[in-house]
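Consider the tokenized backbone below.
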């Protein structure tokens, strides 16, 4: 009988414990409004919620990356858009010169104006945002353009940044870059045949020159042979008797090569060589400033021809900037739409988590009421069982 009483006691205690535990769980759900407060409340549902929470954090990280990328692109877009009217102003000044609006003194003032535009451009291309250079490709720690000055004036602007993009993932399987390669943005790359703007008789050779934009070709005669230079006399190339149809003239400063047909050279002097489709903003502005200032003491006919050629170069560069501005704007629009899409996915994940976690208060109230009734019944039955005496068993 002792075994029977012990068994009854244990069973009653277990039943009361289970009822108490379930009531405590239901009361917790009522107070928190959540039916999953720990993994043991529903392992399968808790696993789903964990996955959805991970997805939310991932989407949040993607959206933060997109916001940072858009911010950087907007700064780049502003810089490019600022350059467009600057080039338009340079073209206006040049057009007024070619139409005879200004006298010699006015031309020098126009040259100073072009120099100011050049300074502005050189400053813009080395802009930093969030402690990173915008136009150096994957190299964000160093200034992308090296600027050399002589007597306070810019004489050379050379791209020294990376030619590789730094890409980041802005969505699963979607990569983009906010940091552009400056040489792609501000430099044309559709090489044409060199055009010689002078009267020395030099013509384009048959080889493919790698000189960019404009080059000044100097032709002298030492009494025996003609000599050519494209680095302002730092080095000379001697023309053999009768000339060569494809003579290489090298710039000792940059290593660039200009191939010249020297078979018809018949005079000396300085002439401008124009390589269509290879201009960059800075070399063009430097050359234009020098043309307006006439530092090389060219004839008026030569200057007029050079000015007309410069207008075409400015048009090409303006078109390039407009195209790049549109491309940057399109990328910003794409990223904003992508961010909206990710935001909707995040909202959906949050809604699903809420649906899985949220407690049905009405159902919980019913379950809690049922459990309380069972608990009271268990207490009542336990009281009757525990109050039985030996005499009750004998009977």
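A designed sequence for it:
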């Amino acid at each position: 009988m002792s075994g029977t009483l012990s068994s009854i006691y244990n069973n009653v205690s277990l039943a009361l414990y289970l009822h108490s535990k379930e009531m405590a769980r239901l009361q917790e759900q009522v107070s928190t409004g959540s039916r999953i407060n720990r993994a043991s409340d529903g392992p399968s549902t808790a696993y789903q919620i964990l996955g959805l929470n991970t997805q939310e954090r991932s989407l949040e990280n993607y959206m933060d990356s997109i916001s940072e990328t858009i911010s950087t692109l907007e700064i780049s877009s502003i810089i490019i858009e600022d350059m467009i009217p600057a080039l338009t102003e340079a073209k206006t000044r040049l057009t007024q010169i070619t139409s005879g609006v200004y006298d010699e003194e006015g031309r020098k003032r126009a040259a100073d104006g072009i120099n100011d535009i050049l300074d502005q451009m050189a400053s813009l291309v080395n802009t930093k945002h969030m402690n990173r250079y915008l136009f150096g490709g994957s190299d964000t720690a160093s200034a992308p353009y090296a600027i050399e000055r002589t007597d306070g004036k810019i004489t050379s602007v050379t791209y020294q940044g990376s030619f590789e993009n730094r890409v980041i993932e802005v969505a699963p399987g979607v990569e983009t870059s906010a940091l552009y390669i400056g040489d792609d943005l501000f430099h044309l790359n559709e090489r044409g045949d060199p055009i010689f703007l002078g009267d020395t008789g030099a013509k384009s050779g048959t080889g493919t020159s790698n000189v960019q934009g404009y080059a000044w070709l100097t032709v002298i005669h030492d009494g025996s042979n003609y000599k050519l230079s494209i680095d302002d006399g730092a080095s000379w190339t001697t023309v053999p008797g009768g000339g060569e149809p494809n003579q290489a003239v090298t710039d000792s400063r940059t290593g660039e090569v200009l191939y010249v047909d020297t078979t018809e050279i018949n005079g000396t002097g300085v002439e401008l060589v124009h390589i269509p489709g290879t201009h960059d903003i800075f070399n063009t502005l430097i050359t234009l400033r020098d043309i307006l200032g006439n530092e090389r003491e060219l004839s008026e006919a030569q200057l007029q021809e050079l000015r007309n050629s410069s207008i075409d170069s400015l048009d090409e560069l303006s078109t390039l900037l407009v195209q790049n501005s549109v491309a940057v704007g399109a990328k910003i629009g794409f990223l904003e739409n992508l961010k909206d899409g990710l935001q909707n996915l995040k909202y959906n994940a949050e809604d699903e988590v809420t649906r899985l976690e949220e407690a049905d208060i009405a159902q919980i109230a019913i379950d809690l009421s049922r459990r309380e009734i069972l608990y009271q019944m268990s207490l009542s039955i336990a009281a009757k069982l525990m109050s039985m005496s030996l005499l009750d068993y004998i009977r």
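The first strand starts at residue 128 and ends at 129.
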